[in-house]
Specification:
With 926 residues, the protein is of the alpha/beta class. α9 packs across α10 and α13 crosses α14. The strands form 10 sheets. It has a 15-stranded parallel sheet that branches. A 10-stranded parallel sheet has the order 6-9-16-18-20-22-24-26-28-30. It contains 19 helices and 51 strands.
């Protein structure tokens, strides 16, 4: 292997002195202001003294007050909100959305933000509300750009001061060269592989002077940009104010409430600080406790962020995929230094095409439950400098199928003076490499390994690079924990041995101690003459935000009048949207194509295609004129099951996006997917809260939410539908009655409907009854939630009758009424409606599993253990016209004039007028 540098070995002490870089790339262009300036100490503007109770609004008021102040043009700061000592309870997250605002605690350990509630987001958000806007057309590169160079041939359209976007596309040819089109089994399973456009790398850079009358980039790129297999391009960004600047969180503790009876509870805060669309920000001297996801996560549009002197302890979550990614970098030019993590699944990681350089420096993981390195595909230019992973690995290699086809997780990366159980590093088919220098571990891979099981000087490669670039001492800034290595020998003299014995009696300084003992917070923690938050009048900015966040007091009145669904005395008209309930990819190019969902969860990511924010869903539904949102739970939780295999998973390394189930995990045992088993007697509080939020916020637009209590897809057809289902005995702690091992028909198909709908079994009957009533309890006060028996329901009469009787019993017991839709096969529907007592429970007749066609009546029988699409394949219903829809609706409007009729059968979207003309409700017309 070709050596990139020369070395001189101190043979007595085992220390390698570097005379040249172990890898010719400058990783020092990271952190706040590229580590060229100190993090500033903002003046205290508002003081928030501790008070009992929920302090969300009070602290947010202080943040918004500072946000409304003029920015100091010299410092770029507006000021700091200083929190006093005490545990500040929060029901809502805090949001900094304006540049120059800092959230600061008086004492790192005694100022605590304590997040309560079941929301799985972050405790503090640093995030701009603006979006990146582009100028002009993309400009192709006229010449290759070499790895690590700043002096490159820029397109003619670039000029001094421009902020530019640089994109390296992932083409089919490049993916094939990388061997990532599939990860086994050939093109038949290529959906796991990399797809063109999914692994694009993009950097934002500024065009600056090279000091010689020319132009250059303000920081190097972490890849070579050639023209051999991808046409790379540059595009100018409009303005430089779309990202926040000079924002931070400092000198406090972030803690989360959790269910102490469940050691794997996940219905609480997942992230401590979430950073998106920020350039030059920081998190420093912050403790994190009891989080499920990340202490700090930087998103793709976060740049030049410093996270330092932070400690994460006692995480609370399942042991599985997408959990405990403690310090997670998906941004660019981010620096994590002097950070400590306990019991992380992935303590220090880059993710999802993070564009380097990014650096983890002096970071220790204790009792690590998984590897550190990169958990997303192709995170280039990653430096691990003095990173120590206790009991697990550092991986710079091809992870293949893992994590939904991560493949090559990094390239052009360096592990310098690190320790781990194992260090994996590979060379890359495109000619790039990964480098390991002076590390201690078991070693594996085809990468560049040098001076294994040796120590090196300088102690920190990052500090050495930064010192060289800035031309000044950086020891205070870097604060390296440099351990004494002098006079260590395998054959010491007696005097030397005695000296070593004395040193061995001293406690070893670990990173947690180093952070606590050496970190000094120098900014002001005195309220001085700062404003008292309780004496601040609401600013115009705060009033406008408060108004936008509030649900209008005068909600539209939903009513059923003369058999029609009305809102504000007007017939409710509009489209229907069904929630997605499986599939999806955690890839930037896929997100815009993924439909809105409120119970889909991608930890650490919020936005379209991931954990979609409910406000965004409400806006999208309004814009699309949707008045019916059909909600049901996921076919399966874990994307690994997209392979339709029926096997038990070897561990809980589940893949997102997660489509949540309505039941809570118990924290006990191990289900088929590797996470803990479900408790069918407890609802998933996050699942319920998200649907309630959608209903409450959507009410102002006249939105109805159909809550499908069951999802029949799990119990019929493919065997994979059933294996992870919460009702399967191996997946719950409630003793459900189904055969085990599963008797797959033809060793592939599953027929569990008869067992599922067997209410003669006392165990099943009681579990169903409890679940139905808890669902009714959950939405009892939401007038725009319609309760329906289940999505794709073709079940038998006896179970439909049982469901309605349970609803009637609940209404009699509570004195409350909920809207109930009857959606089932025609024979079951007619039998129910002919029973006077059952008919009373039904408010809405939902035509979905039968309808008239040009061939006549399409009405398969219920309770025959066939799914809707199986019926359709067998019976082949004909074309549906206006007259057919009109006939379907009008027959039931005439027979039951007091009932509303909704039509969701074949050709519903294009026949809204037929529904309206027949007297139906929610017709798809404007």
């Amino acid at each position: 292997m070709k050596r990139l540098f020369s070395i001189w070995i101190f043979t007595l002490v085992g220390v390698v002195q570097i005379f040249a870089q172990p890898f010719a790339f400058d990783f020092s262009y990271v952190g706040y202001q590229q580590s060229e300036k100190e993090i500033p100490g903002a003046d205290v503007v508002v003081f928030v003294k501790w008070k009992e109770g929920d302090q969300s609004a009070r602290i947010q008021k202080a943040i918004d007050f500072v946000s409304a102040r003029k920015m100091d043009k010299k410092t770029g700061l507006r000021g700091a909100v200083l929190l006093g000592k005490g545990v500040f309870e929060l029901s809502q997250p805090l949001r900094i959305q304006t540049s120059g605002v800092v959230l600061r605690g008086t004492d790192r350990n005694q100022t605590v933000l304590y997040k309560k509630g079941v929301d799985r987001g972050a405790v503090v958000y640093l995030e701009s509300e603006k979006q990146m806007q582009m100028l002009g057309e993309p400009m192709k590169l006229s010449a290759p750009w070499k790895l690590g160079e700043r002096k490159v041939t820029l397109p003619a359209g670039c000029k001094m001061g421009d902020e530019i976007l640089i994109v390296r596309p992932s083409t089919k040819e490049w993916i094939q060269k990388m061997g990532c089109a599939d990860f086994g089994a050939g093109k038949d399973l290529g959906y796991w592989g990399w797809h063109p456009g999914e692994i694009d790398v993009r950097w934002t850079r500024s065009v600056v002077s090279d000091g010689k009358g020319g132009l250059q980039l303000d920081a190097p790129l972490s890849m070579s940009l050639g023209q051999d297999d991808a046409e790379c391009f540059v595009q100018r960004i409009a303005g430089n104010d779309w990202r926040l600047k000079n924002v931070g969180v400092e000198n406090l503790t972030i803690d989360s409430e959790y269910d102490a009876t469940n050691p794997k509870d996940e219905n609480h805060a997942w992230e401590g600080v979430y950073i998106n669309k920020v350039k030059d920000g920081w998190v420093r001297m912050v403790n994190f406790r009891h989080l499920a996801g990340s202490a700090v996560v930087t998103q793709r549009d976060a740049s030049r962020i410093t996270v330092e002197d932070c400690i994460s302890q006692a995480p609370v979550s399942e042991i599985g995929g997408y959990r405990r990614r403690t310090f997670l970098c998906m941004g660019e030019q981010c620096l994590f230094q002097r950070c400590y993590s306990e019991q992380g699944m992935h303590d220090f990681v880059a993710g999802l095409c993070a564009a380097g350089p990014n650096a983890f420096v002096q970071c220790d993981g204790y009792e690590s439950l998984g590897y550190s390195g990169a958990v997303g595909p192709w995170c280039t230019g990653l430096l691990f400098d003095n990173v120590n992973i206790d009991g697990n690995d550092i991986k710079f290699c091809n992870l293949g199928l893992e994590g939904y086809g991560i493949g090559w997780n990094t390239a052009n990366s360096l592990a310098y003076q690190c320790t781990a159980a194992g260090i994996f590093a590979d060379s890359i088919p495109d000619g790039s490499n990964n480098h390991v220098f002076a590390c201690w571990a078991q070693f594996n891979g085809s990468g560049d390994f040098q001076q294994c099981n040796n120590h090196a000087k300088p102690w920190s490669h990052f500090a050495s690079l930064l010192k060289k670039r800035l031309g000044r001492d950086v020891s205070v800034q870097c604060r390296v924990l440099e351990r004494e290595r002098n006079n260590v020998s395998n054959n010491p003299t007696y005097d030397v041995a005695q000296k070593m014995v004395e040193e061995a009696r001293k406690p070893r300084i670990i990173m947690q101690m180093w952070i606590a003992d050496s970190a000094r917070f120098m900014a002001s923690v005195s309220p001085g003459r700062a404003m008292d938050v309780d004496k601040i009048k609401e600013s115009a900015l705060y009033r406008s935000k408060k108004k936008a966040d509030q649900v209008p007091a005068g909600k539209p009145v939903f009513a059923l009048k003369e058999g029609k669904i009305m809102v504000a005395d007007t017939l409710l008209k509009g489209a229907r949207m069904n929630t997605p309930w499986w599939n999806g990819r955690v890839r930037y190019s896929a997100f815009p194509k993924i439909a809105d969902a409120v119970t889909r969860f991608v930890p650490g990511m919020e936005g379209q295609g991931t954990t979609t924010r409910v406000d965004s869903v409400v806006a999208h539904l309004r814009d699309k004129h949707v008045v019916l949102f059909n909600q049901n739970y996921g076919l399966w939780y874990d994307r690994r099951r997209d392979d339709h295999e029926r096997v038990r998973r070897r561990d809980g390394d589940v893949w997102a996006p997660f489509y949540e189930q309505p039941f809570a995990r118990s924290g006990q045992g191990t289900a088929w997917d590797g996470l803990s088993k479900y408790d069918l007697t407890k609802l998933n509080p996050w699942y319920i809260s998200r649907i309630k939020e959608l209903a409450e916020k959507g009410a102002k637009n006249g939105l109805l939410v159909i809550n499908q209590q069951y999802f029949q897809h799990n119990i019929l057809e493919a065997g994979a539908h059933w294996v992870d289902c919460p009702w399967r005995p191996v997946n719950n702690i409630n003793g459900t009655v189904f055969p085990e091992p599963v008797p797959f028909a033809g060793d592939k198909r599953v027929w569990m409907a008869e067992y599922f709908y067997n209410i003669d079994n006392p165990v099943m009957r009681q579990l169903h009854k409890q679940y139905i009533m808890k669902m009714l309890d959950a939405f009892a006060d939401e007038p725009n939630v319609i309760q329906s028996i289940g999505e794709e329901y073709t079940g038998p009469y006896h179970f439909t009758k049982f469901w309605l009787q349970t609803v009637a019993e609940w209404e009699a017991k509570t004195g409350k009424h909920v809207w109930v839709a009857l959606s089932c096969n025609k024979d079951v529907q007619d039998a129910i409606l002919q029973d006077p007592e059952l008919r009373k429970v039904v408010d809405i007749i939902h035509i979905e599993q039968w309808y008239y066609t040009q061939k006549g009546l399409y009405a398969p029988e219920g309770g025959k253990n066939l799914a809707p699409r199986q019926y359709q394949r067998r019976l082949r219903p004909g074309k549906v016209t206006y007259d057919d829809v009109f006939k379907s609706v009008s027959e039931y409007r005439q027979a039951y004039p007091e009932k509303a009729v909704i039509y969701s059968g074949a050709s519903a979207p294009e026949n809204g007028k037929a529904v309206m003309d027949a007297g139906g409700s929610c017709p798809n017309v404007k």
